[in-house]
Known about the structure:
Blueprint: E1 2-6, H1 21-33, E2 41-43, E3 46-53, E4 56-63, H2 70-80, E5 88-94, E6 102-105, H3 114-123, E7 129-134, H4 143-147, H5 153-172, H6 178-185
Parallel strand pairs: 1-4, 1-5, 5-7
Antiparallel strand pairs: 2-3, 3-4, 6-7
Amino acid sequence: MKLIVGLGNPGIEYKNTRHNVGFNVLDNYILRKGIDNGEWKEKFNGLFIKSELYGEKVIFLKPLSFMNLSGSVVRKYVDFFKIDIDNILVISDDLDLLIGNFRLRDRGSSGGHNGLKDIEKFLNTSFYKRLKIGISNNKKIDTRDYVLGKFTNPELDIFASLYGVLENILDDFFSYSFIDLMNKYNRKNR
């Protein structure tokens, strides 16, 4: 069984903020694939959809604990559904990547991302897979204000153009080894 986690903050006030890229990617994927009519259920302080894709069971998860406390929710799903850590993919924003860029990583540091830090703490490892989506960084704005700020219309257009390739990445996550997935999709900033 696979677990695909999109990170974000719950609540209408955080909709379309830079920090909610993980939620947005999952919502878009679920919608484009027509999975379970996009009907999320609630359990363990998270919204989830359990489905089957490409012959494999999968849980899509959006933790509702706020970004910085995502780890306990992820841990509860891992334990309850008996998911191997090797079968987890976490989708998050990344300040160090330009908007329109992404990077797949199979391990590593949190890079200062508090949601990833908390997941690392609760999984007791930094060896879990990530899809990091670039949100750029504006050094003139306090980081907290920046990540909780809304995307501009041109930035939203850039993301709209990315959804096709992000959908392909999630599709291929079911059939490629992660090394092959990284080799296929990772490239220098565009």
